[in-house]
Amino acid sequence: MTYYVAMTDKFLSGWGLAKNGLSKLVIECDTYPEAKIVFQNAHDRSEMKNISLCLTKPHYPKNYHVHFSDKTDAARWFMVDAFVKSEESKA
Question: Is 53:35 a contact under the CB 8 Å cutoff?
């Protein structure tokens, strides 16, 4: 079964390819455990909002810029705590 983790990128929305809309990132996952990791990593990034885990491939209005990724081009998203800053780097 395929799972999709979809999110809005606040940083990229409103300019560039998403000039007149939102920038959406959708990451395709092969398993539910992978999807849970990607979902948590999205929550660990301050520029991501409206994060959802879907069982069907999401579709968006034409004025949205949608980027679809998977393990081949977004490998870091599949690593546990990939975007959590260590205590040393916070200082």
Answer: yes
